[in-house]
């Protein structure tokens, strides 16, 4: 499967847990396994990508989905998929908690991940298929998915919860498309990312080489194709995280943990087989390079081709356009971690200062980037508290 880094040697006894059946399930099967209803829908973007998105239309104890149910859309982060929201037990997974709280829950996916490998004319074995980074996800995938969800549910707006790259997509897309912003009643950003000048992820060490795209492509993966890390790149990443004996064989073979870090105190070891069988879910080499560029520039901007002519061809300007977070008018909630490698508190502070409508912001002590999707305390510290904001703005939608 494209974009998925398989774990070659996985010892079940090493984790002191049985192999979970969810390891071999797709997302709808994972949802149905726990007794919830599941749907898969196909969404076509304006530039021809076909995305499979998932739905939990109602809670476990409801027989049917009622009309006029508030809608919430969840968007995963870098190298992830919709599986992130249902990878823990139902009492600990945001997707299930929201469904049981009365929401019509939709789980997004983006081009290049496990559920975004179709296109009307291109195939994943063509270099043209992988000619994208997160800015295309923000400007094409995001509006296509939101419009599809609202057209299907017949609702005027929805609540949006993003993690990591899912927040970047929102900040970028909502800053450009005013009409799209009118379709989101509240934006809840978990591990919010816009500028990345202060990140401590090993991605920052790629920044000095970002202008040498050919070298960087060869170093981190197959240039022009999906992100399949080279041995040299994995060894490079491993130097920043490995050495924790308990997890070394598992963590250090998974690029997701190496790029984002992990918090041993919050990591549910019994669920590791599920996490690593579904994540990383794939992206393009160009997307990884884009992050490196942004570390170097310190700007929240589109992909830089470094050639003035190429930038002119793509943007009608010699430098890539910068997304302006001050144009995001949607009421916004920010949750961020004290030790986050990708959403550094200093970058979050810059973002919060730029956003014009932050209604709540909270730093979670000691938390890392992945704690927002897999943390043992995520339900208690983040998921249940954020219901307050979803309910408040969803009810305004229902009453309108």
Please explain how this structure is put together.
- The chain has 400 residues and is of the alpha/beta class.
- Helix content is 36%, strand content 13%.
- It has 16 helices and 9 strands.
- Strands 1, 2, 3, 4, 5, 6, 7, 8 and 9 form a 9-stranded mixed beta sheet that branches.
- Strand 3, helix 3 and strand 4 form a beta-alpha-beta unit.
- Helix 4 packs across helix 5.
- The radius of gyration is 20 Å and the shape is globular.
- The chain starts with 11 loop residues before the first helix and ends with a helix.
- The N terminus is likely disordered.
In short:
With 400 residues, the chain is α/β, with parallel strands linked by helices. Helices cover 36% and strands 13% of the residues.
């Amino acid at each position: 499967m494209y974009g998925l880094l398989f774990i070659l040697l996985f010892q079940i006894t090493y984790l002191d847990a049985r192999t979970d059946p969810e390891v071999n399930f797709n997302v709808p099967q994972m949802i149905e396994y726990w007794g919830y209803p599941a749907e898969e829908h196909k969404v076509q973007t304006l530039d021809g990508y076909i995305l499979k998105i998932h739905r939990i239309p109602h809670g476990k104890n409801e027989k049917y989905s009622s009309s006029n149910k508030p809608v919430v859309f969840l968007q995963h982060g870098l190298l992830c998929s919709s599986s992130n929201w249902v990878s823990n037990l139902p009492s600990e997974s945001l997707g299930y908690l929201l469904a049981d709280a009365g929401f019509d829950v939709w789980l997004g996916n983006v081009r290049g991940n496990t559920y975004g490998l179709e296109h009307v004319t291109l195939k994943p074995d063509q270099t043209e298929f992988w000619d994208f980074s997160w800015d295309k996800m923000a400007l094409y995938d995001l509006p296509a998915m939101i419009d599809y969800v609202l057209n299907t549910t017949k609702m005027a707006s929805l609540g949006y919860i993003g993690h990591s790259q899912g927040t970047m997509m929102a900040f970028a897309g909502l800053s450009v498309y005013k009409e799209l912003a009118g379709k989101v009643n509240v934006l809840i950003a978990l591990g919010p990312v816009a500028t990345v000048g202060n990140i401590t992820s090993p991605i920052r060490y790629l920044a000095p080489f970002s202008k040498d795209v050919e070298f960087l492509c060869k170093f981190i993966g197959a240039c022009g194709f999906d992100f399949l890390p080279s041995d040299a790149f994995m060894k490079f990443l491993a130097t920043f995280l490995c050495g924790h004996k308990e997890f070394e064989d598992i963590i250090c073979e998974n690029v997701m943990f190496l790029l984002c870090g992990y918090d041993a105190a919050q990591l549910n070891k019994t669920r590791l087989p599920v996490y690593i069988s579904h994540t990383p879910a794939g992206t393009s080499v160009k997307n990884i390079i884009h992050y490196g560029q942004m570390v170097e520039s310190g700007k929240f901007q589109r992909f830089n081709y470094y050639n003035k002519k190429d930038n002119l061809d793509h943007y009608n300007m010699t430098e890539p356009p910068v997304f302006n977070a001050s144009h995001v008018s949607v009421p916004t909630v920010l949750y961020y971690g004290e030790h986050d490698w990708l959403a550094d508190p200093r970058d979050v502070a810059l973002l919060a200062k730029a956003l014009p409508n932050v209604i709540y912001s909270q730093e979670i002590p000691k938390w890392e980037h992945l704690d927002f999707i897999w943390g043992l305390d995520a339900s208690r510290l983040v998921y249940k508290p954020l219901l307050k904001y979803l309910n408040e703005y969803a009810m305004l939608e229902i009453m309108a």
